[in-house]
């Protein structure tokens, strides 16, 4: 039975504190009311909820915890994570937070069917309807479920998440993302570089995108990495550079890696002015936007800036580099990640005699 305790507040008014205890199950809740009748009504209702949860073999969830939603948990995850999460993961979680009704559900009430329904809702959007994309969304959301209970006491059940993941996989709603194999042709690169050269001629203050594109291909560096490289981390004689915080699934910060710079990367760097700490002192988002806009203008379909990294690694494999030699350039820790490049059939360098190299670094 709940206990109702009458107390006098500092202002002289009377308060009624309803107290519920189930010591064997670690339950101890209380709530204060202005009227005794209201306190009794709440206590009777709340006791029934607690006893039903105990009878069904569940650990009773505090009433306050029931009001905390999945959206609140996502906010907490984004704000409290000591390890910097990637921009893609953060954007995915923000999208779930603001655009999907599951984020409004109380943490303790979310079950496997609710999560499966969320994944089905993803498939209703044209830009998110592939099993690979849905799988990524579910994986990122699963990270919140993994730590919410043990870290913040938020009752997100990771068992329900795992059950939902199995169901979604069996139904074909989720799948591992297929490896992207898109590579730019020389004709497409000619169009892009001609466009960027004209832009630089019209406004010398704009980002020298032609040099950035060339460096991305031949260095195999990601756009964020290119924008972080500093002059202090560049060893010209050794033809190598330190890439700070290189992307790695298990280590977001402090993963600093020395990587080799094949030709013509040192020559491209030599054309950059030493006016700032960074060799390419530009915003990576701006570079991405300029590249995407240029592809639209040049009528080039389905080409991403990251495809330049794949092109660069494929080129090195086609030139006959071994997996260890490839790793020294790309920075991959796991050689297994580079196995896809060991099966290339074409041998040689398609960039031999390419005029754009001499035009910018000759």
From TrEMBL:
List residues of the Tyr recombinase domain. Answer: 179-355
| Keyword annotations | DNA integration, DNA recombination, DNA-binding
Keyword DNA-binding: yes or no? yes
InterPro entries in the record? DNA_brk_join_enz (IPR011010), Integrase-like_cat_sf (IPR013762), Integrase_catalytic (IPR002104), Integrase_recombinase_N (IPR010998), Tyrosine_recombinase_XerCD (IPR050090)
Origin, by domain of life? Bacteria
The UniProt family comment states: Belongs to the 'phage' integrase family.
Record protein name field: Integrase
Gene source species: Thioclava sediminum
């Amino acid at each position: 039975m709940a206990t109702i305790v009458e107390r006098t507040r500092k202002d002289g008014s009377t308060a009624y504190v309803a107290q519920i205890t189930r010591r064997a199950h670690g339950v101890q809740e209380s709530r204060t009311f202005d009227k005794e009748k209201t306190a009794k009504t709440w206590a009777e209702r709340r006791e029934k909820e607690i006893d039903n949860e105990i009878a069904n073999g569940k650990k009773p969830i505090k009433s306050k915890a029931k009001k905390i939603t999945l959206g609140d948990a996502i906010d907490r995850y984004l704000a409290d994570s000591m390890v910097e999460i990637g921009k893609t993961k953060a954007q995915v979680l923000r999208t779930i937070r603001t655009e999907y009704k599951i984020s409004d559900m109380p943490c303790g009430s979310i079950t496997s069917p609710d999560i499966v329904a969320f994944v089905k809702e993803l498939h209703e959007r044209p830009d998110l309807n592939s099993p690979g994309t849905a799988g990524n969304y579910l994986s990122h959301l699963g990270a919140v479920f993994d730590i919410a209970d043990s870290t913040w006491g938020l009752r997100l059940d990771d068992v329900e998440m795992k059950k939902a993941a199995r169901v979604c996989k069996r139904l074909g709603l989720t799948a591992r993302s297929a490896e992207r194999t898109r590579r730019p042709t020389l004709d497409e690169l000619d169009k892009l570089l001609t466009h960027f050269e004209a832009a630089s001629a019209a406004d010398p203050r704009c980002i020298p995108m032609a040099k950035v594109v060339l460096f991305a291909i031949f260095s195999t560096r990601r756009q964020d990495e290119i924008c972080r490289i500093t002059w202090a981390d560049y060893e010209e004689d050794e033809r190598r550079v330190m890439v700070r915080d290189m992307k790695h699934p298990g280590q977001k910060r402090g993963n600093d890696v020395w990587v080799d710079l094949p030709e013509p990367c040192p020559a491209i760097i030599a054309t950059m002015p030493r006016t700032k700490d960074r060799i390419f002192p530009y915003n990576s988002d701006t570079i991405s936007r300029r590249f995407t806009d240029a592809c639209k203008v040049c009528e080039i379909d389905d080409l991403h800036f990251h495809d330049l990294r794949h092109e660069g690694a494929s080129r090195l494999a086609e030139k006959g580099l071994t997996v260890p030699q490839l790793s020294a350039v790309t920075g991959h820790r796991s050689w297994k990640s580079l196995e896809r490049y060991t099966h290339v059939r074409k041998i040689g360098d398609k960039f031999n005699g390419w005029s754009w190299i001499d035009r910018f670094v000759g």
